Amino acid sequence: MNVYEEVFSAISELNHIENASFRKIRLLVVGCSTSEITGGVIGHASQPNVGGDVARACLDASNKEGFSVAFQCCEHLNRALVVEREYAEHHNLEIVSAVPHPKAGGSCASAAYRMMNDPVLVESASADAGIDIGQTLIGMHLKRVAVPVRLKASKIGEALITAARTRPLLIGGERAKYTL
Length: 180
Fold this sequence. Notes:
Elements: H1 3-15, E1 27-32, H2 34-37, H3 48-65, E2 68-72, E3 81-84, H4 85-90, E4 95-96, H5 107-115, E5 119-122, E6 129-133, E7 146-149, E8 155-156, E9 159-166
Parallel strand pairs: 1-2, 1-6
Antiparallel strand pairs: 2-3, 3-5, 4-5, 6-9, 7-9, 8-9
Helix pairs in contact: 1-3, 3-5
């Protein structure tokens, strides 16, 4: 199992889906259970080395593809997100005080925190897309109309993956038009 390659490939595939309703990804939220990736139960078998592989793949993919990435912490940090300070300040996100570690934040979020240039935790964000590795429940950090996306791979390691892109709300009624 090469977790780095599996994650990088999944993110690249998610970013290149052709659909007129999807806007360019500006922020990708990543939820990750390293316990689930290695065949354990979420929250009970944290694997810092696997978290590092996932975080590195996400950061490399975001640098190559040109979007920002937010890493969701576990419930012990109220599912706060690790982002670069520059992104948080530019988007006026509420910065909170904590530093994730494997037992409170999760292995992936804590690895990302160590790898990023100037990381901070923010309370929440509204991402354009997301990848959930191990059913960590990232939906609260996606824009309002999330569309499930089926990727070629259904697992990373032993963890189920769920991906989503978002689209703008369709407002109006039967008289509304959505194209010119």
